[in-house]
Each structure stands twice: as structure tokens, then as C-alpha cells.
Specification:
With 358 residues, the chain is an alpha/beta fold. Helix content is 38%, strand content 21%. It has 14 helices and 17 strands. The strands form 4 sheets. It has an 8-stranded mixed β-sheet with strand order 3-4-2-1-5-9-10-8, sandwiched between helices. A hairpin with a 5-residue loop joins strand 14 and strand 15. Helix 2 packs across helix 4 and helix 3 crosses helix 4. It is globular, with a radius of gyration of 21 Å. About 2% of the residues have low confidence.
């Protein structure tokens, strides 16, 4: 029996919406839908994450000062109509889905989301997903952009490949628009700090993405065995080539995952529902990597606020992610432990409730 693979195609605002007039590039929509149709015809699954509603809404309103929420509310139905019109011409049945963070952060909703997408795939329906900016833009319920949203869906649904379709060729060692000698990087085995330093302030107006966002996404996706690509969607045929396995853009190789990742671990990895985090010392890092639980004695600093049973990120002294885990105490309770010499052996995160970023 053929193994079915999921391909997630994330379309960026700067690729989909024309910079000058703010019009939708229908030829780009045609290529992504034809690519999705080919994936499905080959017996696999496809999912599109699309940006562009806010920029389109500002064009329709002819007002660049309008809030992202209002712009997205006006632009979203028009944007989806472009997808719907072309998909009908191609004989593809599409479904529009607007998501917010709680649909992944809460365990019950996470399982429901998986079941919903699974039924869509099995029925030959192509989901077209966007964040629900109308309700959550600028709030803690936001994914902070469609790059993280696409990554969360890729992890949640066990995707084979995550393709980030942008208006740039891929990763360079410096900004190619400012440095004519910038060197293109076609393949990355491991995303180290050196690669993160290549990213400048590249967030465009009306866009929540950028190269730094894409590298962070690729680094997390690679941990769970998802190959990630950054390609230029303004070059005709690039997406077709990427899906066919031809070298285009920058490829971030997936790490070999030796053990099957449990569904609960997938949820822990994507469901971080607190802006808070905990910095731990080198000894605690080694302890976690050897399979031990996190104790209060290893904590160096607390960032932000969180309550017991929330999912937080655990970082090292260089602010690198070490793990995500379900915390057993609130930030204030842990702070009190650190002020006392009697509670340093308290367990903060059990090893069973932790996903290590190896």
C-alpha cells in the first residue's frame, strides 16, 4: 500500500499580491493550485497556507492606515474567491479555514483539528488556510504570522515537506539587494547561529514574515523530520520543480528521526501557549538531554509570566531553545523557590511532559 505524504505550500504576501497596485497575481494562484492538484493526483495530500488578505484589503479600502484586523476582514473573502474561481476551473474542491492559536494550543481542539484535516484529505478536499487576523491580530491567540502557522500545521499533521513560497530566491549570506557579492546558499544541513546572523530587518509592509521567521520555522521543522524549502514563487515553474525534487531555492534538510514522534509530543511542540520561558544552566541542559526532568536548581532566570500547566519554552544561556514542556508551577511560585534554599529540588517539568529540541 502506498504511503501517503502531506505537502504544505505556504504562499507569502509579497509573492501573491502585486507591490504596485496591490492586485492579486492570478498566475501565481494558478501555479500553486495546479501543483496541489498534481500532488493529489499522485496519491498524496496537499494543504495551502495563504497570506495576502491584509494587503489586499488595504488596496480595496485605499487606506494604508487601516488596522490589520479591518484590512484582513475586507480582503479575506476577495482573496479566497480568487482561489475558489481557479480551483473550480481545475476541478479541485477547496475548503476555506481560518485558524487561531487555541485550535492547536488546547489538546481537545488539537485532536479535533487533526481529525478534521484528515477527513478533508481522505475526501479529496484541498484546505486553503489563513490566520484569522480579524479576531486575533496582535493578541496572544495569534500565530505571529503564517510561517509559524504553516510550521505548526506541518508538525501537527506529520507533513513530508514544507514549501515556503516567497519573492526571493532563498537564503543568502547577506542581503542580495544591498550586496552584489552576496552568496546564495542552495542547501543547509543544520541551521546554526551563523545562518541566523544572515537575516536582516526584512519584514515588509503588511507582511508578518521574513527570512528570520523562515529560518526559525525551518529549524523547528527539521527536528521532526520535515524537509523545508524557500523558493521564489515569482519565477514560473519553480514550485513544480520543487515538488518534483529538482533543486530550486534553498533546501533545509530534515534531520533523521530515529524514534516515532508521538502525537502528544507533536502537540507539546506546537502548543506553546505562554510568552514566558525559563533559562537553565549548562548542567540542567545536560540533564534534560540525558532524559531527566527539570528541577528548580537548574533555573537561572524566568522570562515573562505563565501559570501552572501551561506549555513554555526552556532555553539555554545563549537563548537557544532546548525543549518545550508543561510547567508544574506558575512563574511566581518558581520565583519564590529561587529565593529560598529549601525548594531547589522541586520538579518543574517532568521528562514525560517535555519535547527536546535535539
Amino acid at each position: 500500500m502506498q504511503t501517503k505524504y502531506l505537502y504544505i505550500l505556504k504562499m507569502g504576501t509579497n509573492t501573491l499580491i502585486n507591490d504596485d497596485g496591490g492586485a492579486v497575481r492570478d498566475e501565481v494562484i494558478t501555479e500553486i493550485l495546479e501543483s496541489a492538484k498534481k500532488i493529489m493526483a499522485d496519491g498524496n495530500y496537499a494543504l495551502i497556507v495563504t497570506s495576502g488578505a491584509a494587503r489586499l484589503g488595504r488596496r480595496i479600502l485605499n487606506d494604508k492606515t487601516v488596522s490589520r484586523k479591518i484590512a484582513a476582514s475586507v480582503g479575506q473573502p476577495v482573496l479566497f474567491n480568487h482561489y475558489k474561481k481557479k480551483s473550480e476551473e481545475l476541478g479541485i474542491l477547496t475548503a476555506e479555514i481560518l485558524l487561531t492559536k487555541p485550535y492547536i494550543a488546547k489538546r481537545e481542539q488539537f485532536l479535533n483539528l487533526q481529525a478534521t484535516f484528515t477527513e478533508m484529505f481522505e475526501r479529496g478536499i484541498l484546505p486553503v488556510v489563513n490566520e484569522n487576523d480579524v479576531l486575533v491580530s496582535g493578541s496572544s491567540w495569534s500565530f505571529d504570522g503564517n510561517d509559524p502557522l504553516a510550521c505548526d500545521l506541518a508538525i501537527s499533521l506529520g507533513a513530508k515537506k514544507l514549501i515556503l513560497i516567497s519573492n526571493i530566491n532563498g537564503l543568502y549570506d547577506s542581503d542580495p539587494t544591498k550586496n552584489a557579492d552576496a552568496k546564495f546558499i542552495p542547501e543547509v544541513e543544520n541551521i546554526t547561529d551563523d545562518f541566523l546572523k544572515y537575516c536582516g530587518e526584512d519584514i515588509a509592509e503588511n507582511s508578518t514574515g521574513g527570512m528570520l521567521s523562515k529560518l526559525k520555522v525551518a529549524r523547528i521543522a527539521s527536528v521532526v523530520g520535515i524537509e523545508t524549502h524557500i523558493i521564489n514563487g515569482l519565477i514560473p515553474g519553480n514550485l513544480y520543480k520543487t515538488i518534483a525534487g529538482e533543486p530550486t531555492g534553498t533546501t533545509f534538510k530534515a534531520r533523521k528521526v530515529e524514534d516515532t514522534i508521538s502525537n502528544r509530543d507533536r502537540w507539546i511542540l506546537v502548543a506553546k501557549n505562554s510568552a514566558g520561558s525559563i533559562e537553565i544552566d549548562d548542567g540542567a541542559v545536560e540533564a534534560l538531554q540525558s532524559g531527566k526532568s527539570l528541577l528548580a536548581v537548574g533555573v537561572k532566570r524566568i522570562y515573562g509570566e505563565f501559570e501552572a500547566k501551561e506549555i513554555i519554552e526552556i532555553i539555554d544561556k545563549n537563548s537557544h531553545g532546548v525543549a518545550f514542556g508543561i510547567i508544574d508551577f506558575s512563574h511566581s511560585e518558581i520565583d519564590a523557590m529561587l529565593q529560598s534554599s529549601d525548594n531547589h529540588d522541586n520538579q518543574l517539568v517532568h521528562s514525560d511532559n517535555m519535547f527536546l529540541l535535539k
